């Protein structure tokens, strides 16, 4: 592959950033990779395992001279980081992010981007329940969607270059409006995560079943919920606070559907249940046909955990 960016600065060194670093190195997409993490331990690990060529104690130092800056921090601190790095960005640099919410990120980051800097919000729909600089692997983005939400009037050459980077790491790339992105992700990721957290919370509080029994007799469905509910609590707190309108909308729809099923079960309406489950089963088949999962045992997950730990 061709080097697309001479110096990439990764702000935050968790799963997504570390996977990007591995992928960019493996496919020769970046000349130099530098990083910043709030934790001194994470910075030390990033150097020890060769994740970054250099690490910096501040984000402002890390972005100097970078032609690509990737914000890999929780959505709740995006604005704070943007304010810090804004004055230090090189003219012509591209700034993107990997947040699961786009509307709030645009509001928080865009005001701090100086003229001549290309801010192109993004969201790789890939992840595991693991975190930290050691959690990344080069194939995380393979055949996963990476959504870009360019602002009105965005430089198309800058967008094309960022798109080429995402595709070079194995991702499928699409563009959409930030507001539409947040509604779609509320359906496909955010609300399902909230339901998973809730169901695991229900199990935790059940007085009739001890914790050991819940763990010992966990069926596949509950195991999947616990995997989802093991995701980064800081990230998901910020997701729900910053995408609350869309999530509350989808939760309302979910509640209506749940009441319908509740009534069918109470009334013994097997015909309704069978028809409903038949329709929803087709969604699963569609996901497999689209290449976004596999019908292999345990969904073909790798030892690293290939599930959706990130929205």
Could you give the topology of this structure?
Blueprint: E1 5-11, H1 15-26, E2 30-36, H2 40-48, E3 54-56, H3 59-63, E4 68-71, H4 78-85, E5 94-97, H5 103-109, E6 118-119, E7 122-124, E8 145-148, H6 156-168, E9 172-175, H7 178-205, H8 211-216, H9 220-229, H10 233-242, H11 244-266, H12 270-289
Parallel strand pairs: 1-2, 1-4, 2-3, 4-5, 5-6, 8-9
Antiparallel strand pairs: 7-8
Helix pairs in contact: 4-5, 7-9, 7-11
Strand order of the largest sheet: 3-2-1-4-5-6
**Structural class estimated from helices and strands:** alpha/beta
Alpha-carbon Rg, integer: 21 Å
Low-confidence stretches: 297-308
- Termini gap: 28 Å
Number of strands: 9
Could you tell me the strand content as a percent range?
5-15%
Biggest sheet: strands, sense, closure?
A: 6 strands, parallel
Number of contiguous helices:
12
Secondary-structure element pattern, one letter each = EHEHEHEHEHEEEHEHHHHHH
What's the shape?
A: globular
On the 0-100 scale, what is the average pLDDT?
A: 89
Percentage of residues in helical conformation: 40-55%
Compose a concise summary of this entry.
The chain is α/β, with parallel strands linked by helices and 311 residues long. 49% of the residues lie in helices and 12% in strands.
